[in-house]
Amino acid sequence: MKKTFAALCLFSSAVLIAAFPSVQDRKADLQKWAIHDESRPLPPIVNPGPAGPPAPVPADAIVLFSGKDLSAWTNGKGEPAKWKVENGFMEAVKGTGSIQTKQGFGDCQLHVEFATPAEVFGTSQGRGNSGVFLMNTYEVQVLDGYDNKTYADGMAGAIYGQYPPLVNVCRKPGEWQSYDIVFRAPRFDKAGTLVRPARLTVFHNGILVQDNEELTGPTAHKARPPFAAHADKLPVSLQDHGNPTRFRNIWIRPL
Ligand code: MG
């Protein structure tokens, strides 16, 4: 009986390991999958608990959005950001384009709260899609990931096209959620050669979903391009992907 139990445990562990890789194996695992591979295993679903009020803002943080206006943002063409602001949140307006901070940032801790549309429409990547881009280049995917199947490397909390989140901790559509991101910018030497890749740690609703992952380069759709030298500081941007996803309480601490 004991032997059967032990064998069963071993078998279940083996199944789990096969189904989803350990943190240490993530880099090796990434190489095994084509970008947006539909057969790449999806992470387990974990209930993060209920949404709370906006998180407190630390004294040394730069507030990027307090709920009042988009004065810290532009449309990236030297014009004011055209997203809607009301009731303490901003909302992506289809066709107005992505928005970006006026200020540039490199290494940073970034706090972002978001809510995908309460009224559910669309499927897969067409449902609550937006994104938080570090340095305008490296996307942490924003998506309605509650009962919405999509490819693993495009889920909410994914480093888009590269790393699925370790767990799926999405709240229901319309509920407030948070990302706490620690970003280490890539380093290039004077000749523009990559010295150190970018790294990302992400907590989604307070739960670790990316553990100091080493990026392969800029995030992209159907492509994993290599790093290309860029400035030490670049804007944080939020994606207009055609869905009215909302944001509130955004602040950053340069590191
Ligand atoms: Mg996106």
Explain what this protein looks like in three dimensions.
This protein has 255 residues and is mainly beta. The chain has one domain (20-254): Jelly Rolls. The protein is built from two helices and 15 strands. It has helices at residues 2-19, 26-32, and strands at 62-65, 73-74, 84-86, 89-91, 99-101, 108-115, 130-134, 138-142, 177-184, 187-188, 194-196, 199-204, 207-214, 237-238, 246-254. Strands 1, 3, 4, 6, 9, 12, 13 and 15 form an eight-stranded antiparallel sheet that branches. A hairpin with a 2-residue loop joins β12 and β13. It is globular and about 45 Å long. The chain starts with a helix and ends with a strand. The model has no long low-confidence stretch (mean pLDDT 92). The structure holds magnesium ion.
The count of helical stretches stands at 2
- Pick out the low-confidence regions: none
Overall pLDDT score: 92
Number of strands: 15
Give the % helix: under 10%
Can you tell me the CATH superfamily? Answer: Exo-inulinase, domain 1
In angstroms, what is the radius of gyration?
A: 19 Å
Bound molecules: magnesium ion
Order of helices and strands: HHEEEEEEEEEEEEEEE
Determine the CATH topology: Jelly Rolls
Taking the sheet with the most strands, its summary is: 8 strands, antiparallel
Distance between the termini: 55 Å
Q: Which range does the strand content fall in?
A: 25-35%
Tell me, briefly, the overall form. globular
Give the class from helix and strand content and strand pairing.
Answer: mainly beta
Query: In the CATH hierarchy, what is the class?
Result: Mainly Beta
CATH architecture: Sandwich
- Into how many domains do the coordinates divide? 1
